[in-house]
Q: What sequence folds into this?
């Protein structure tokens, strides 16, 4: 009996030792990870206008608040924040934050960041902060923003503002200095290297070394991934190569990107000025053809924002019917022979022509009108162009900007679409702060403009395909930013 | 207190203590569970309702639509009876609504001031909900993607060691909403105490029933033990009173049955013992009587004789002696002589005493008419042989002193050799052995011989029973003939026979010390004047 117990004890110790060893072993082998992207880094300027640069620089810089992988706001340099009154937002700043050069983050750094943006008028940021009247830093730990006008989603705009330590952007372009979990090490023409910041306020990330490598050619990008041992993700990935994944150590993933392509109405045409007739067209619209028409790049959309964006209404789904049903419905609804001319940019000529063919097959009188994108709004002047092609990217993860822009801007509301309920809801939206309530309003708005009184015809939203190495968890945000600090095995 | 009562009390006490301990544990566990329930309910309730409450406050109160607001709010509050009330604050800490004071109408007083407690303000402005215990501790909570809550710092960093919420008694939970409002839920533990009270009552009722039942069982059980024990007690009392025929009629196979059996056996043994003791006492009395009678038959005083000095002493071993001696002075037509003899019957005790007494009587009866010591002993032998079993006989040394002839002779009938002290050189002679014990054969005349001893003035002879040389000092050392001879040689010069006798006995007793006297000791000294 005693022997059996001794053996069992030995086995227990042995197994515990093995598991301890193995867990230590898995952490120890994760020394570096590489992300392959298509485009190289253009600039280390934290306020670079190039979208891919923001991908590269994301691990270095932090913001007062940021998005998680589901585009939900989470505290970052500010551990809490809130609305004091309609035009006042308060942010409480963490006390133990250091820049990569060892200096402590202070409230002045935050104020200086916004001052720098104001001065330099960084194109993609200045619109975001134009509503800031002043910034106060006279209370401990506290940064207070006084706005010109109420903005219930002000904090979302702050996710685009990296906090910097100097007003000299040129210096930062040479030697990036942020508070992020990784600090800049070096760069070559096609690779940027980082190492974990040991004094990060949230403890250093698990992987000591991260790098981004750009490989433009999609095949070469995939080959590079397959032949490596440290590549954990490839963004984007061409679905043409899907069949080769079976022999690789990678898995295909995709998620909606934040861009929805759609037509907007020019209801100058008396037939299509009726909301009822516009609804009828939606009933026969070839949604199920969208994926084919976009060569597999698009997913049929029935509303103007994609899944994951605040305002997305899951109850609004494309009405998928087969061709015969739609053809019969076209006749039944009296849409036969109705002219429907839609403007598309030349880059989408194939799409336009295929769509034209589809609509004509139903019995409509459809015509694709090719026009350069920057002239597309002028095509409204052509009376018989009823639909203009547009796309919208909800960078801030919310449909609010789309709605505020579309309906407050003459440029995007050339048709002077007007709906009193929409106006009322918009007014309500701009004074509603509670997120659930905002979501309800946004979803109702989406329902009206997508279906009840269609502002346009949502076509498709893009998908963002990428691959990750098997056995690794690589969080990729809906705006395609890889959260490298959260990569784990 | 009676045994039954003692057992009942002990059992009941044990059961009461066990039940009380169990009840205490149950109540404690119940308290922990209910406390945890209240915490979970309050936390979940706040998670589910905070947003809605904030929306209602934001939507209706600014426009003073309390009539629309209040029923909805009350409806929400009704869903959790542990929540006493709620307060809704804006981000700056200004109280917007208090369900306790604004039950039926909206607050319309002066503008409320912001809260001043910095910790409370932090909680209102936090990203995460927080709870405060009645001890004043504040804990922030964060919900993970898995849906589980864990405790974090004010800045959202998880604690390495998570506190146990079962140990909390919560005063309030503050649930921030959309960075704009915060809803504070004041938690009541009245329900806890009510439920605990009820649980305690329930447990108490069960415990009481259990106690009563246990008392009943205890009494029954006690009776089961006590009844036979009472019976046994009565039996033992009767036995103690002397009624040794009492027996316990308990046939059970348990310890009580074993005890009853033992008591019965004890009574039986006691009866036998008492009977044996009575017999022994009776026998002892008879022995004592026989000893007294025997002692009475021995010469009480030894008279002074002319020409010789005689001293004699018999020390019996136990009770009736097997030794015998006598001095018979004859002065008649047959002659003027003294018969002095010492006899030793095989064994000692009553049977030996009876034989020695018989021999004593017969010699005393025949001595006056028989001046021939050989014939005397032969006649005594015939009678002894006829009247006794073959296993009992008597050795005897008979000394005759003829006062007319001034001569001493002796006949030895199988007895110890007579010692003669010679005063001239202080030596001691051992006379020749001879003869045969009386009672062994029907006729012994021819085996006996009268031997004359030349006794000069100051000489002495010693007659003794084997009890002297065979006196034990320990399990292996005896006094012995050599020592006896030496003693006689040493003390033979003493002036009187009595002095010699006493000195000899003293020496023997000194040798023997505290060792038990195993045999009768008889000593006769005859000293020639």
A:
């Amino acid at each position: 009996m005693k022997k059996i117990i001794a053996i069992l004890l030995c086995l227990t110790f042995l197994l515990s030792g093995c598991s301890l060893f193995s867990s230590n072993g898995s952490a120890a082998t994760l020394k570096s990870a590489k992300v392959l992207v298509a485009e190289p880094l253009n600039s280390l300027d934290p306020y670079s206008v190039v979208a891919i640069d923001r991908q590269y620089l994301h691990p270095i810089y932090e913001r007062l608040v940021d998005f998680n992988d589901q585009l939900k706001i989470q505290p970052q340099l500010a551990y809490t924040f809130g609305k004091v009154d309609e035009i006042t937002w308060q942010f409480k700043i963490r006390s133990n934050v250091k820049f990569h050069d060892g200096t402590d983050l202070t409230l002045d750094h935050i104020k200086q960041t916004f001052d720098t943006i104001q001065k330099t008028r960084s194109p993609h940021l200045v619109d975001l902060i134009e509503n800031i009247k002043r910034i106060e830093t006279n209370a401990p730990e506290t940064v207070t923003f006084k706005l010109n006008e109420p903005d219930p989603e002000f904090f979302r705009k702050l996710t685009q503002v990296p906090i910097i330590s100097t007003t000299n952007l040129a210096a930062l372009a040479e030697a990036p200095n942020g508070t992020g979990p990784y600090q800049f090490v070096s760069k070559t023409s096609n690779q940027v290297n980082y190492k974990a910041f040991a004094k990060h306020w949230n403890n250093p990330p698990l992987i000591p070394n991260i790098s981004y490598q750009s490989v433009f050619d999609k095949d070469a990008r995939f080959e590079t991934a397959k032949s490596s041992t440290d590549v954990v993700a490839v963004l984007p990935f061409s679905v043409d190569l899907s069949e080769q994944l079976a022999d690789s150590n990678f898995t295909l993933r995709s998620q909606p990107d934040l861009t929805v392509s759609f037509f907007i109405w020019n209801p100058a045409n008396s037939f299509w000025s009726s909301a009822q007739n516009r609804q009828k067209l939606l009933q026969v619209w070839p949604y199920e053809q969208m994926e084919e028409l976009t060569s597999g790049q698009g997913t049929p959309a029935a509303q103007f924002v994609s899944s994951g964006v605040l305002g997305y209404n899951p109850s609004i789904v494309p009405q998928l019917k087969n061709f015969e049903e739609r053809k019969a419905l076209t006749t039944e609804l009296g849409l036969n022979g109705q002219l429907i001319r839609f403007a598309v940019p030349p880059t989408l000529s194939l799409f336009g022509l295929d769509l034209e063919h589809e609509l004509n097959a139903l019995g409509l009188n459809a015509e694709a009108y090719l026009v350069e994108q920057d002239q597309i709004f002028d095509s409204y002047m052509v009376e018989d162009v009823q639909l203009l092609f547009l796309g919208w990217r909800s960078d801030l993860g919310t449909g609010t900007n789309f709605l505020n822009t579309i309906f407050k801007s003459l440029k995007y509301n050339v048709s002077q679409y007007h709906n009193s309920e929409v106006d009322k809801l918009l007014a309500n939206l701009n004074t509603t702060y509670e997120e659930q309530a905002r979501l309800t309003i946004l979803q109702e708005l989406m329902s009206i403009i997508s279906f009840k009184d269609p502002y346009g015809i949502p076509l498709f939203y893009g998908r963002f395909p990428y691959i990750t190495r098997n056995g690794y968890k690589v969080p990729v945000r809906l705006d395609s930013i890889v959260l490298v600090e959260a990569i784990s095995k | 207190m009676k045994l039954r009562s003692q057992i009942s009390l002990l059992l009941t006490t044990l059961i009461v203590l066990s039940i009380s301990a169990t009840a205490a544990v149950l109540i404690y566990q119940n308290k922990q569970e209910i406390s945890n329930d209240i915490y979970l309910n309050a936390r979940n309730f706040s998670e589910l309702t905070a947003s809605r409450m904030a929306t209602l406050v934001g939507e209706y109160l600014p426009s003073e639509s309390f009539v629309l607001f209040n029923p909805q709010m009350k409806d929400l509050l009704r869903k959790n009876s542990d929540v006493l009330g709620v307060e809704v604050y804006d981000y700056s800490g200004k109280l917007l609504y208090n369900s306790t004071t604004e039950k039926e109408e909206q607050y319309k007083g002066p503008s409320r001031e912001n809260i001043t407690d910095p910790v409370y303000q932090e909680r209102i402005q936090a990203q995460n909900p927080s709870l405060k215990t009645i001890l004043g501790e504040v804990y922030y909570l964060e919900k993970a993607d898995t849906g589980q809550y864990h405790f974090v710092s004010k800045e959202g960093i998880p604690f390495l060691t998570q506190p146990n919420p079962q140990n909390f008694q919560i005063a309030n939970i503050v649930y921030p909403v959309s960075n704009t409002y915060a809803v504070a839920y004041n938690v009541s533990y009245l329900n806890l105490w009510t439920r605990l009270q009820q649980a305690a009552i329930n447990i108490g009722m069960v415990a009481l029933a259990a106690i009563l039942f246990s008392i009943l069982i205890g009494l029954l059980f006690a009776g089961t033990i006590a009844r036979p024990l009472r019976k046994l007690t009565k039996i033992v009392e009767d036995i103690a009173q002397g009624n040794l025929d009492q027996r316990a009629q308990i046939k059970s196979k348990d310890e009580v049955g074993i005890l009853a059996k033992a008591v019965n056996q004890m009574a039986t043994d006691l009866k036998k013992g008492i009977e044996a003791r009575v017999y022994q006492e009776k026998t002892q009395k008879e022995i004592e009587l026989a000893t007294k009678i025997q002692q009475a038959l021995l010469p009480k005083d030894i008279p002074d004789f002319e020409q010789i000095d005689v001293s004699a002493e018999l020390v019996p071993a136990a009770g009736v002696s097997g030794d015998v001696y006598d001095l018979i002075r004859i002065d008649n037509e047959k002659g003027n002589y003294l018969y002095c003899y010492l006899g030793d019957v095989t064994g000692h005790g009553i049977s030996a005493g009876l034989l020695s007494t018989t021999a004593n009587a017969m010699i005393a009866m025949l001595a006056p008419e028989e001046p021939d010591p050989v014939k005397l002993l032969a006649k005594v032998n015939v009678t002894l042989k006829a009247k006794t079993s073959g296993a009992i006989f008597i050795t005897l040394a008979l000394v005759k002193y003829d006062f007319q002839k001034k001569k001493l002779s002796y006949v030895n009938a199988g007895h110890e050799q007579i010692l003669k002290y010679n005063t001239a050189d202080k030596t001691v002679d051992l006379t020749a052995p001879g003869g045969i014990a009386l009672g062994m054969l029907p006729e012994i005349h021819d085996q006996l011989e009268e031997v004359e001893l030349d006794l000069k003035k100051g000489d002495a002879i010693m007659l003794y029973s084997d009890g002297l040389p065979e006196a034990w000092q320990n399990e292996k050392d005896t006094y012995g003939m050599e020592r006896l001879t030496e003693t006689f040689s040493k003390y033979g010069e003493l002036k009187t026979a009595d002095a010699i006798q006493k000195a000899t006995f003293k020496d023997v007793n000194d040798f023997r010390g505290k060792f038990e006297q195993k045999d009768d000791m008889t000593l006769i000294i005859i000293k020639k004047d």
